[in-house]
Predict the 3D structure of the following.
Amino acid sequence: MHLNHLSGKNLFIRLGLLLAAVGTAATPAHAEPTNTIPTLQIKADQVTAKVSPMLYGLMTEEINYSYEGGLYGELIRNRAFKANPTNAVFWNVAGNGAISLDTNQPLNSALNVSLKLDASKAAKNSPAGIANAGYWGIPVRPDTTYHASFYARGRGFSGPLTVAITSTNGEIVLASAIVPKITKKWRKYEVTLTTGNVTPSKDNRLVISTTKRGTVWFSQVSLFPPTFNNRANGNRPDLMQLLADMHPAFLRFPGGNYLEGNTIETRFNWKKTIGDVSQRPGHRDDGWGYWSTDGLGLLEFLEWCEDLHMQPLLAVYAGYSMRQQHVTPGPDLDPYVQDALDEIEYVTGDMNTQWGAQRAKDGHPAPFALNYVEVGNEDWFDKSGSYNERFAQFYDAIKAKHPSLQVIATTKVASREPDLIDEHYYRSQEEMEAQSHMYDTRKRGGKTKVFVGEWATRVGSPTPNMAGALGDAAWMCCMERNSDLVVMSSYAPLFVNVSDLGRGGSMQWRSDLIGYDALSSYGSPSYYAQKLFSTHHGDAVLATDSQDIPTYSWQAPAGRGQSQRPAPRQVPSLFFDATRDSQSGIVYLKIVNRQSTPQPVKIEISGAASVEVEGEAVVLKANSPDDTNSIQEPDKIVPVTEKVDGLGTDFTREFPPCSITILELKTK
Ligand code: AHR
């Protein structure tokens, strides 16, 4: 039996007694601090579980302009003119011309609309052109080369075209190049634009213009800055670096609701997201209300994994979309099951397979290693109850072809025993803390492990504040302590573009881990909390026990359909877990103090021959739970590493208010 479970039970019993003492009278204010110093015991000779090497990963989907206007390097908004069927949204006329959408001059059947520029009034001192201001700006940095490309054809027009990045008012030209000749037939044109010693800025636009008269049609107008690992069609380096610093073990993609769509038609239809970007039709991300070009498609997700050394966790569409559309299990579902098998083959198949050959043709001959496939997303929302059977159909087909794949269910099923079940927890700080021992008592023994595929303490907007980070850290202590059962987890959502926080703007969901605008980015306190956990977890969970953990009184809100709030309960205000790295012998003691006062804690370590007097502490703290990072103050709350002494097998240390500490204890 896990000593940690005993420890958790003891805690529950203590909390129960406290609650009984409080009774059900009116909600008391937060509990008075007691003078008793809490004590923690770490039993270094009692390993209760292995820390799952897959515990800390990432979850991603197109929400909050995560890819387009976010991670995906493309700087042009509505590059293929399909975001709105009647208007050339995000495009403007530059100078003396007229623009309109034209469905009579398509580039191909995927990009079936083009942008027509009537430059019939252009003149030497009066150019006509098209302009795009990107996703809330176009970032410009000094001495940087941008790659611009577009398809064009002319009528009564043979060029030249000037391609330029200018300030929004057009007064400053930051970089420009000339395309001397435009043909009558569609052709792709490419130029590089290199800036000089300019000040970094984002209030810029791309302008393609001419001083010659005629008509020009454009398709897929694109502008890329340098990308992470210099990948063509690649990702934004600063955001990739923030992710790389977290050392994530896996990436769950492509959603989330983005996988399902509101309707079957608007699901993530992976076959339409591969190949040359000019052959991808794009689709409306109707769950989150905007257009996706699918420039970041299936192969780009996989290359993102490759770049950050993450395992892909591939979520396959399972025949349910959010407006209660579901495909009836049986023959009707077969094509979707086949689609999933094809998708798995695209990821893992060698070049002798149909879809492996397609991947090679798309630019990646080597197969990707794949161990996890998730069937659907949040299928508890499917009121028809079809998931039980749909899951079985996918599970059987996947296991028959790929017996070693771990198949994840999105909700409980009776039809099959999934390898993992995906649980989602979006909570307030108090709720997160109140459930911070829930896995201690969860029954073990079955085959099915837990993947907490979406979780977040949703406090703070657009990104979580320190209260969010404290709730997260309490929750991560719980998952880590129980990582024999909870083998994988991923916070959600990962990204938010913070440029336009009004209705219909750049954010669809508040409290997102990483924020950015066109030019800069930052990690929230929750980002740093998670980075601390994911880079200090060792490989063995140690048994712990505790006494006199301080608590506060909290009354949960009334549940759905309930008129009464439940009775107040006592919730811990100090959280902890201890893990060890077997190679170095370092014990990572994580302590979270959610109180506004410093908290001395007595720490007793048994089962270790010695503990060095000196060690290290990495501390994330804030003056108040409301404190946060932002685009203006990206580094207000960041971890600080300090040398510590006075450590040993028995010592007392004070933990700052509103803090998350990782104490590194060198044991032998
Ligand atoms: O993370 C935001 C959304 O929350 C996800 O798309 C969905 O799976 C969940 O309901």
About this structure: The radius of gyration is 28 Å. The longest helix spans residues 3-22. The chain has a mean pLDDT of 94.
